[in-house]
């Protein structure tokens, strides 16, 4: 018997599952040997599949958890999608996930149903575990997000972070991370990418992204890079509307496409499409890349040479659902060259999209050959990528081992080290740092985000702290109250998030500076906010408000760590890419 940490099943064992009833939970001690899964298996499996099964394999779906359902989160919604519609992949959200053990139990039940049902093919089980603010699994190690990693200017950071995240995901039975984000963030007003991007230098984004892919692979997890051809220079959120990137092809080749080209060379398994129009790629009015044959087949397949699986972004997003309707868009995406269609939420949308694709094949709008092309790519992805750790060779998790392997102290130390490397001192002309309780004991914390969490960390350092939460655009009365409290404090720490888009945050900082008390601003999101602050305000970019970033911020404030981060984006009319004040050891403020 194989005593590896993740169960392995032979194809014979998978077929045998059809003959037994589905238990309520997967036994935790089943470990079976695996026969070779290769091109022969791919061909044989494809030849035996019905049209319904082939179409189902081309869908990745999310599901709702029954209110009074299984303790693992398994539900009737998931059961129907797998057993009746034969879906090839499942995406998990926070609504499905509680802790590592529960995640392992859930993924096992999903996989057991898949291998017990036609066509007896294991699932791709995916999650968005990007790091920073985009994390789904409670109890897993949360690394700083991409922009924080970009501030380290060290691709090895991206590699180590991804490897650790990958190992934790695979221990829970998650075999695909919808990451890394390869968008080049060129627009300070971008409402949806921002800190999810490594930065604005396409070569740096490419280097960090390919290192992350290597790390995920060594962590035994597949990757889906996104959002092709690039969501970094938009000011519209595609969850709501249809953005457009109007740059010419020369600019796209020099910026947006650079990381995707490199990711293809670096072994990207899947590429996720963007619901964005690119007139330089396809001039057809109101045609997003997801529905464009020129973009998916012409550019991505034929010109860039990508041979892996093309997956759409969620087809229930506003950019698609409101304009085209999810069912018709699913048909058009496959006609354009997509292999997998992501429908992440509604069972009715999932049923109708699957039915629409099947009808399109039956009517001749989509050829059977076109379906076979995509299903073959999906089966090869499951059978061949990751070698001995391929999805079809390493199917199950062991929840007891997941509990032991996920969120370890060692991984936490790695995340803390990344956060500490990322903190960037952008400006401190009056040398207000470091803050120490023996010099400035009374501190006011004002922030629209995490004021209490930040205050607790400062209290642990010996400060007498008062926390004041404010709105993203603090009203006159809120600002007045903050100023009154600032006069009673020795120093003021202001958390900022989106001050470029919420001008009253900047107004608050200006008013606090007028009190004459030392003001230190912490960037809890993108560092663009420094552009609207007084030049004398000390500004530290943390690139997030997750626990390790807040910990690193407090250590930076109090002079406990060296400051080595560099801006991964430029600040218009203020600072270039790479700016940052480096301090190995802080002296008393003003000295």
TrEMBL record:
Ranges for domain Glycoside hydrolase family 3 N-terminal come to 51-381
InterPro entries, alphabetized: GH, Glyco_hydro_3_C_sf, Glyco_hydro_3_N, Glyco_hydro_3_N_sf, NagZ_Beta-hexosaminidase
The chemistry this enzyme catalyses reads: Hydrolysis of terminal non-reducing N-acetyl-D-hexosamine residues in N-acetyl-beta-D-hexosaminides
Give the molecular function GO annotations.
Answer: beta-N-acetylhexosaminidase activity
**Tagged with keyword Repeat:** no
> Can you cite a GO biological process for this protein?
carbohydrate metabolic process
Give one Pfam family, short name only: Glyco_hydro_3
Return the EC number.
3.2.1.52
Q: Does the keyword Lipid metabolism apply?
A: no
UniProtKB keywords: Glycosidase, Hydrolase
Family to which this protein belongs: Belongs to the glycosyl hydrolase 3 family.
What protein name is recorded for this chain? beta-N-acetylhexosaminidase
Q: Which organism is it from?
A: Polycladomyces abyssicola
Taxonomically, what lineage is the organism?
Bacteria, Bacillati, Bacillota, Bacilli, Bacillales
């Amino acid at each position: 018997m194989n005593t590896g940490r993740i169960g392995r099943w032979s194809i014979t064992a998978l077929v045998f599952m059809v003959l037994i009833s589905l238990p309520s939970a997967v036994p935790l001690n089943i470990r079976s040997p695996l026969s070779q899964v290769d091109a022969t298996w791919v061909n044989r499996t494809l030849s035996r599949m019905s049209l319904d099964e082939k179409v189902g394999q081309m869908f990745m779906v999310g599901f709702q958890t029954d209110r009074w359902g299984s303790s693992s989160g398994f539900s009737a919604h998931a059961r129907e999608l797998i057993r009746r519609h034969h879906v090839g992949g499942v995406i998990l959200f926070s609504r499905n996930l509680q802790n590592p053990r529960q995640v392992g139990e859930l993924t096992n039940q999903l996989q057991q149903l898949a291998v017990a049902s036609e066509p007896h093919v294991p699932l791709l089980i995916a999650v968005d575990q990007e790091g920073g603010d985009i994390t789904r699994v409670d109890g897993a190690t949360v690394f700083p997000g991409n922009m924080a990693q970009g501030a380290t200017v060290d691709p090895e950071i991206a590699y180590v972070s991804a490897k650790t995240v990958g190992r934790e995901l695979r221990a829970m039975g998650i075999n695909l991370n919808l990451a890394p984000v390869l968008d080049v963030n060129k627009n300070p007003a971008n409402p949806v990418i921002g800190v999810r991007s490594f930065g604005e230098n396409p070569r740096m984004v490419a280097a960090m992204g390919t290192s992350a892919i290597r790390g995920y692979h060594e962590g035994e997890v597949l990757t889906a890079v996104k959002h092709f051809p690039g969501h970094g220079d938009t000011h519209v959120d595609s969850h709501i509307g249809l953005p457009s990137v109007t740059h010419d092809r020369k600019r796209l080749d020099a910026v947006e496409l650079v990381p995707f080209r490199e990711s293809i060379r670096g072994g990207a398994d899947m590429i996720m499409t963007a619901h964005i129009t690119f007139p330089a790629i396809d001039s057809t009015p109101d045609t997003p890349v997801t529905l464009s044959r020129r973009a998916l087949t012409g550019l991505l397949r034929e010109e860039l040479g990508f041979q892996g699986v093309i997956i759409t972004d969620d087809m229930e997003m506003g950019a698609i659902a409101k304009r085209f309707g999810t069912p018709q868009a699913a048909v058009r995406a496959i006609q354009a060259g997509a292999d997998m269609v992501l429908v992440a939420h509604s069972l009715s949308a999932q049923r109708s999209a699957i039915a629409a694709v099947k009808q399109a094949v039956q009517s001749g709008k989509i050829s059977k050959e076109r379906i076979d092309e995509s299903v073959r790519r999906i089966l090869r992805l499951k059978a061949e990528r990751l070698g001995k750790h391929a999805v079809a060779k390493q199917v199950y998790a062991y929840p007891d081992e997941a509990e032991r392997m996920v969120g370890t102290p060692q991984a936490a130390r790695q995340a803390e080290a990344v956060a500490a490397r990322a903190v960037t001192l952008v400006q401190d002309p009056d040398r207000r740092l470091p803050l120490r309780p023996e010099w400035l004991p009374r501190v006011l914390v004002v922030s629209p985000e995490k004021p209490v969490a930040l205050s607790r960390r400062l209290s642990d350092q010996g400060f007498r702290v008062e926390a004041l939460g404010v709105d993203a655009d603090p009203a006159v009365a809120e600002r007045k109250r903050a100023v009154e409290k600032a006069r009673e404090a020795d120093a003021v720490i202001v958390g900022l998030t989106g001050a470029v888009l919420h001008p009253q945050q900047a107004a608050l900082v200006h008013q606090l500076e007028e009190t004459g008390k030392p003001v230190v601003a912490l960037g809890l999101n993108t560092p663009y906010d420094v552009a609207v602050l007084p030049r004398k305000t000390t500004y530290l970019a943390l690139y997030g408000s997750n626990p390790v970033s807040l910990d690193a911020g407090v250590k930076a404030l109090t002079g406990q760590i060296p400051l080595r981060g560099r801006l991964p984006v430029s600040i218009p009319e203020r600072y270039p890419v790479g700016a940052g004040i480096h301090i190995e050891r802080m002296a008393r403020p003003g000295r």
